[in-house]
Amino acid sequence: MKRRLAGLLLFLLAFSTGMTVHAQGIEWKTLTDEAMSLQQQGHYDRAIVVAKKALQVAGQSENPDPLAVAASLNNLAALYKNQGQYALAEPLYRRALAIKEKTLGPDHPNVALSLNNLAVLYDTQGQYALAEPLYRRALVIKETSLGPDHPSVAIGLNNLAALYKNQRKYALAEPLYKRALAIKEKAFGPDHPEVATCLNNLGVLYCSQMQYALAEPLYRRALAIEEKAHGPGHPEVATNLNNLAALYDDQGLYAQAEPLYKQSLAIRERTLGPDHPDVAVSLNNLAGLYDAQKQYAQAEPLYKRSLAIWEKALGPNHPDVATSLNNLAVLYRKTGREKEANALEKRAAAIRAIPH
Q1: How far apart are the C-alpha atoms of 32 and 51, rounded to whole Å?
Q2: pLDDT of 51-94, one tens digit each?
Q3: What sign results for the dihedral spanned by CA atoms 256, 258, 261, 262?
Q4: Residues 305, 306, 307, 311: is their CA dihedral positive or negative?
Q5: Which of 46, 80, 276, 291 is at a distance of 20 to 30 A from 53, taking alpha carbons?
Q6: CA distance 81 to 65
Q7: Which CATH superfamily is domain 1-105 in?
Q8: pLDDT surpassing 60 at residue 105
Q9: In the chain, where are the structural domains located?
Q10: pTM of the entire structure?
Q11: Within 10 A of 116 (CB to CB), how many other CB atoms are there?
C-alpha cells in the first residue's frame, strides 16, 4: 500500500440525515449523526452499532419513511464497505436501491446515488464488469435530469474515469477527467476545492502512466487551492501533500518527498488523532520511503504502528491489514528475519483467502 490517494472523488453519499427527518423523529437523526461522527473519527465498530440502531428506529416508525430506511441501509452498508466486509454491504446497498426505485422511479437523481454506491463497492473489489453499467446508468440519469454541465455529472464522470484508470484504460479515462474538471471550473470558479479534487484525479492518472511532468503542476495547483480555502493545517491539505510526496517518491526523489510526507503525517495526527486510519496511511508511506533507502531501523516502527492502527480501526481481517502485514514481512526478509517474515505472509494470505 504505497499510498491512499484520497483525492479520488467517489460519490458515496456515505451518510444521509436530511431525508424527511420530521417523519422519523429526533431519535433517528441523532443516531445517524452519531454514526457519521464515529465513522469520521475512524471508529467503525462503534459506528456500526449505532447505524444498526438507526436502521431499526427508521423501520419501526408508525409510518416509516421509505427514503429514511433507504438512507439507513446505505449508511450501514458504507460502514461495512469501509471495513472490507463487502459481502455484508452488498445486500444493504441493493435493498436501498430497490426502495428508491420503487418510491421515486427508476430515473430519479437519488436512484443514481444508490447505483453509484453499489458500483463503487464492485469497483473496490475489482469487479469492473459489474461496476461499469451501474456507473453508466447513474451518469445518464444525472445528465438527463440535471443537464450535461451540472456538478453532479462531473462526479459521475470522475467515477467512470477512475474505473477505467483502475483497468489501465488511460485513453478512456483522460477525456472524462478533463470534462469533469471543465464542469467544476465553470460551476465553481478556478480556485474552488471541488476543482482541486478534479486536478488531483487527473494528476493521479498521469502518475499512473509515469507522466510526472504533467502531474506535478496539477498537484501543486490543487495544493495551493486547498491551502487557500482551508488553511495550511487542514486534512485535505494533508492529502494533497501526500500526493505530491508520492510523485517525488515514485521518481526516487526522496529528499523532496520526505518533508512532505512528514508534514502530511503531522497534520493528520493533529486534526484526526493518532489512531485514525489516515494516520496509518501516512505512517506507511513514510516507512516505505525509508525502506526504499534501506533505512530499515527508521521504517520498521512506522510499519508496526500503521499496522496496529489498521487492525484496531478496520479489524484484523481487512485487506489493508493484509497489505500492511506484507509490507512489514518484506522488511523482515530484507533484514534476514525469515521466520518472522513467513509468519506475517502466512497471515496476510489467510486474510486474502477470506471472502469479503
Answers
A1: 6
A2: 999 999 988 867 788 999 999 999 999 999 988 889 999 999 99
A3: negative
A4: positive
A5: 276
A6: 24
A7: Tetratricopeptide repeat domain (1.25.40.10)
A8: yes
A9: 1-105
A10: 0.85
A11: 29
Block residue for cell numbers 426505485: 101
Q: What cell was used for 264?
A: 502530511
Residue for grid cell 490517494 = 5
